Amino acid sequence: MRFVAEQPILARAIQIPSRIVSPQNTLPALAGVLVEARGGEVRISATDLTSLIETRLPANVEAEGSVIIPAQTFSDLIQRIPTADVRVDSDDQRGQVVVHYGRNRATLQGMAARDMPTFPAQESTQGDFTLEPGVLPRLARQTLFACARDESRPILKGVHIALGEGKIVMVSTDGTRLSQAWAPVPDLRSDPVNFVVAAKGLQEAARLSGSEGVTITVGPKQIRFSTEAGAITTLLLEGRFPDYQRVLPDGFVAELTVDTGKFRGAIERVNLIIHRDHAAAIRVKHQPGTMELSSEAMDVGQAYEMLDVMSTGEDLELSFNPSLLLDGVKSMESDETVFEFSGLQSPARLREKDSSHYFHIVLPLRQLV
Amino acid sequence: MSKIRELSSLVADQIAAGEVVERPASVAKELVENALDAGARRIRITLDTLEEGGAPPAIIVEDDGAGMDRTDLELSVRRHTTSKISAFEDLERLSTLGFRGEALASIAAVSRLTLESRDGASQIGYRMVVEGGVIRERGPVSRDVGTRVSSEDLFVTVPPRLKALKSVGAEVSAIREAVGALAVTRPEVAFVLVQNGDTLFATPGDGVLRHAVAAVFGADRADKALAVTGTALGGAITVTGLILPPDQARGNRSAQVVGVNGRLVRNFGLRLAVEQAYGPLLPDRRYPQFFLAVTVDPADLDPNAHPTKAEVRLAHERAVQGVVRQAVGEALRTAPAFSLPVAGGVGEAGMRAAEGSPLMQTDWLLAGADDAGARPVLHQELAALVPIAQWALRYIIAQGPDVLYIIDQHAAQERVFYDQLRARAAEPVFSQPLLEPLRLSLTPREESLLRQAEASLGAAGFRIKDGGPGTVLIEEVPALLADAADLRLADQVMASLEAGEAGEHPVSWALDHRLATAACKAAVKANRPLSHVEMVDLIRAMAASENPRACPHGRPVILALTLDGVDKHFGRLGRR
Question: Do B488 and A152 touch (CB under 8 A)?
Answer without folding.
Answer: yes
